[in-house]
């Protein structure tokens, strides 16, 4: 044996320093320490119960592991690059502290199932943390929707004014997106919450281990049912990053709207000073940097998704070192999505919605043209024909530089004799919103019902 490597027995030469640095993961996988120790405690306990090691040895291991955990948490432990990863660092410290019994911990275990276990435990905790942050976003969105359930604004398609809605209705669209994101994570938890430990290197073990006991100790719903799959599957990570990528897509779309809405051209919202930043040269500037940065950060999460898929796609079963690359992608995804959600919710909560501005801006752009067509269709003009008549009216009004509501009744009647005085009331923008009292629609009762069902859903998640 050449140096102090835990696996050094068959080696005649030390690892080249370049290789040691290259393959060491301790710089990033040390964040798994808590889960590694938690897993080792459950494993040692099981080894003792099964008589694979003595009860006394198991008790010594458990106690020493608990002490190491406390020492790491107190900042008293330094990890070594030479000990490669978090698993071997902790085993090394354990053996230094308790001597030969420390060397028994790895009986009936491999780093392959150990690392799979650690990531699953880590991910279960982080999924729940992300879900809590999503619920905070949902709270803010529902509150905004309630405050602005009657704040009329333009709805857009192709970023051209389309039909009037309310700001509340617009916020509820995002509420639905984040609700699906939350539910996707709940679904991902089901497949993450299985114990890989006991798969060992790839083919389980000759020792009479009790996987179900360990699963129970660690709070898993069950065990990975094939040992090769248990150590080589990382699809739960892909699923998580995919769910995170969609969260970032939704945040990024809302960011884009916030950037637009806070511009002088729109002026729909005013961000709180605490959630905007200035320019080093232009004194007047107040920039929506938070929204821009979240929009920008979505790119790294999409990159991690593709990176992880690509890393996995050509790997023969079972474990391959390529899989160590899952970690930085996963950790950075968790970090990015958590930080983004954390800052986004209070930014939304503190922004001011300029109700008068959004209402005034909703008026132009022939936003009531569909309603004018509906007016005719409701009076038995076939919709296609009505569409064409209003198209001609829009052209006529546009040439005059006025809106439909500014035309005189004789002008309306030049295009169709069906028009009468009540058309003016029919195409008022408040009326256009109120007339869409359909489930999922923008009219006040429909929005109130959507808020109510959102509240019920939110209350059920706690
Ligand atoms: N650091 C490794 C990883 O993250 C742990 C598993 C190593 N197993 C092995 N046989 N080299 O994947």
TrEMBL record:
SUPFAM superfamilies: L-aspartase-like. Residues 9-303 form the Fumarate lyase N-terminal domain. Residues 366-434 form the Argininosuccinate lyase C-terminal domain. The keyword Amino-acid biosynthesis applies. GO terms for biological process: L-arginine biosynthetic process via ornithine. Pathway: Amino-acid biosynthesis; L-arginine biosynthesis; L-arginine from L-ornithine and carbamoyl phosphate: step 3/3. Keywords: Amino-acid biosynthesis, Arginine biosynthesis, Cytoplasm, Lyase. GO terms for molecular function: argininosuccinate lyase activity. Its EC number is 4.3.2.1. It catalyses: 2-(N(omega)-L-arginino)succinate = fumarate + L-arginine. It is found in: Cytoplasm. It holds the Pfam family ASL_C2. GO terms for cellular component: cytosol. Belongs to the lyase 1 family. Argininosuccinate lyase subfamily. This is Argininosuccinate lyase. It comes from Candidatus Avidehalobacter gallistercoris.
